[in-house]
Amino acid sequence: MKIKGKSYRSIWLDESDREVVKIIDQDKLPFSLEIKELRSVDDIYNSIRDMNVRGAPVIGAAGAFGMYLSTLEISEYSNTIDHLNNAARYLISSRPTAVNLSWAVNKVLHSVTGLSLHEDLTKKAYSAAMEIYDAELKNCMEIGKHGLKIIEEISKNKNGNPVNILTHCNAGWLACIDYGTATSPIYMANEKGIPVHVWVDETRPRNQGARLTTYELENESVPCTLITDNTGGHLMQNGMVDIVITGSDRTTSTGDVANKIGTYLKALAAKDNGIPFYVALPSSSIDFETGSGKSEIVIEERDPSEITDVTGFAGGKIMSVRICPDDTKAVNFGFDITPSRLITGLITEKGICGANQEEIRKMFSEKITR
């Protein structure tokens, strides 16, 4: 996708120096565009933990590149198996909720299992990481194609008026290498000339909607309006939303979805107002071994300062200011669980299916039986 007319991806391996992973530092957007170089497993871990790189598919890609970099750090004195296993555990621990991270890390780890020569390890890890990277790009394109059909159907009844789409958090190309999940159908509809308009939740406390989704959409000339997180219900009650599309950090085998805190409330409001609520995700975000989202998914708790302080741009620099009394106690859950009963359907690279075990198993039987 584009920033000021120039094409970018949110993460890539520097082809002129394959020991360097480059990312767009999402923590600096939209105030400045900064490319960060990651040269070690520690660099990858810190960037995921500190959310310089964020979004389930892209942190999966980062984890895969991290495992590749770990093979470059093996010394003649290292126990290769211990080194790789430690790197895998370390990377996975950086963010606990999104399943893409552990999936990608383990996929690269398994690809090098049994290899002994350092050169063979590095080549195989590179190949596995690039396979994940390329697959996630393709998956997002396919998600866009399938989701586009939904927007086209809604548009037929709009008499030329825009299809109003509500999003939550950032499930765009910044979170997904390119195209995005929830945004991919939106971009394709816009390219096809279908009138669309996006209501963008600010997404407190880190404001990924305000800072990232609006930035993406405006650079792609997609009409959008920023709203507070609590405005969505009002818009739905008054016929101003046609469809809700969100992303997913982890979807269970039964269709429960863990996503950015506040997603559950949007699903409740959509259900109450008869508005379709779709979740767009690649199969790498499906945890086929987990049944109940509410009881089995670990919900990340982040630093309370993300709530007690707000970050913005003033005086030519990014700065944080406190918005509550000094002794205020705060708790900061990063995600919530939207139960499958509230979800109209899952938009995946293989097509659209119901958020239930039977349809998920049918669509992804080859992944479950491996």
Quaternary arrangement of the chains shown? single chain
Report the span from N to C terminus: 34 Å
Structural category: alpha/beta
The description of the largest β-sheet is: 7 strands, mixed
**What topology, given as strand order, has the largest sheet?**
8-7-6-9-12-17-18
Strand content: 15-25%
Tell me, what's the shape?
globular
What is the typical, i.e. mean, pLDDT? 95
What is the tally of helical segments?
A: 13
- Please estimate the helix content: 25-40%
Return residue spans where pLDDT drops below 50 for at least 5 consecutive residues. Answer: none
Note down, in words, how this protein is organized.
The protein has 370 residues and is of the alpha/beta class. The protein contains 13 helices and 18 strands. The strands form five sheets. It has a seven-stranded mixed β-sheet with strand order 8-7-6-9-12-17-18, with helices on both faces. Strands 13-10-11-16 form a four-stranded mixed β-sheet, covered by helices on one side. The protein has a three-stranded antiparallel β-sheet with strand order 3-4-5, with helices on one face. The longest helix is centred in the middle third of the chain and has 38 residues, at 118-155.
